[in-house]
Here is the input.
Amino acid sequence: MGENKTSERIFTRNFHLADSHRLTRYIETGGYTALAKALGMEPAAITEEVKKANLRGLGGAAFATGVKWGFIPKGSTAPKYLVINADEGEPGTFKDRYLMERDPHALIEGMLIAARAIGSRVGFVYIRGEYVKPWRILDGAVKEAYAAGFLGKNIQGSSFNFDIVLHRGAGAYICGEETGLLSSLEGKKGWPKIKPPFPAIKGAFGHPTIVNNVETIMAVPHIINRGAAWFAGLGTKSQGGTRLYSVSGHVVKPGVVEAPVSVTLRRLIYDHCGGIRGGRKLKAVVPGGSSAAILTPDEIDIQMDVDGPKSKGSMIGSAGIIVMDETVSIPEALMVVARFYAHESCGQCTPCRESTGWIYKMSRRIVEGKGRKEDLDTILDVAKRGAGTTICAFYDGAVGPYISYIEKFRGEFEDLIRNSARA
Amino acid sequence: MSDARNPQFTPEQLAEIRRLQGLYPDKRGALLPVLHLAQEVYGYVSLEVEEYVAGLFELSPAHVHEVVTFYTLFFQKPKGRHVVSVCHNLSCHLMNAKGIIGHLEDRLGVAPGETTPDGRITLLTVECLCACEQAPMMQVDDRYEGNLTPEKVDRILDGLP
Here is the structure.
């Protein structure tokens, strides 16, 4: 497999420094030089560079970032908003927490460059309410940036003005969905909105808005500094760059791993994270956050770009990798995941609201030894019928685990149900 | 703690609310930040607080109630002096979250969702807090605590004021 063996570290290059979150350290290590360069570029040229870099959204949907920026209506005098999705919540994902705590100025610099590209004067960072420490660190960095003239009016002596507002969420997974996030930012419950209109046309407070993930925006200063060709060359045909993989579960060394997107899932588990704990065997792995279909040990020789997991019917999603060893009960794991989707369904669309609740109840009764013979086919039927019928992608995400856990480990579920019938 | 049944912000708090409202193109954008502030001041968001905050935003109390009840971080009843939220999502489940929750239940004598009779601790189970590398983990007030064992949980609880 054409794996890019570069050990280039972009996002994590300063993680080892104790004061990596401070402005002085950021500037010492080349910080804000991309901004200076971007201030001398035409906005359209910035967007073009990001397109050529083949940067894809790293929050979950993997949409081409430069293409998204290009959807902002040209020549419109309406206010435009840049909104950063820092509502990290996909189970198994924790990279944005590291990024905000250890390199907050890279987020600010990325926002400044993106804002110049799309013509925005105000950016909001929507950060999950539970992330108190990252919020405090980012707040400190924003204050440093204002004091040093990197935010506010006439930034670095230019005619460019930009303000950043940090906005704390209040506990709701659905606010990580970009239109749910915008509803929440507007002071409402986080109900997703029907698209179209897409946020680039009618987003926050009714105005053109770009919503980007934290990590995505933090790639931008490096692209501007070192060029689109360099960034694109780090990755594969479908996606440029390195990215952060959040690895948890039964590995020897769980944590955040930066690697080129050509890295294989096998290498992430066995080389970067030390393999399975206690010398046990791998049973299953979630490759991209809990909404991604589960993979079996014979499916891990895939590159971890947008295409790799897709080739196995799963998705790269947020690149949250959850590793399960041979001791894991897959029916119990499904129950845990189903409880999450039942709890987090926002209640707006009937198929999602009802199905997530019923599927949780059925998965629980299977685990509790009260399963019925027809339960597995009922879950599969309900899951498949609901997919694609709702306003947002939440239910499609829930369907990923429902179907894959049962179809790939059906025997284990059937054993539990058979034993219930005997009892 | 100010009286949640009879809320009245101080002039300084009202000035802070006006500042927050001014950060958004429509002041309603500040509703979540102001509810966070109200919860800090009053301990929880009572119906009276909802109605009071609604007045500051020219919103109906029903709208504010809808918002408060949608999000998990707003408490509608008084909570303990400390809130212990244990993650029970997948990565923590794999690393024995169940054992940690059981230990907390035994030690505190309450079930998730309940507060100890002395009002010291509210115990909750929560969905993914996105610190899966330190599973099993929990949030104690503002802090994340990870790589939990029953002994570590005891030390953390003993250290709470």
Summary: Chain A has three domains: 23-234, 242-325, 330-422. The mean pLDDT of chain A is 96. Residues 350-367 of chain A form the longest helix (18 residues). Strands of chain A lie at 81-86, 122-127, 163-168, 209-213, 242-249, 255-260, 282-286, 320-325.
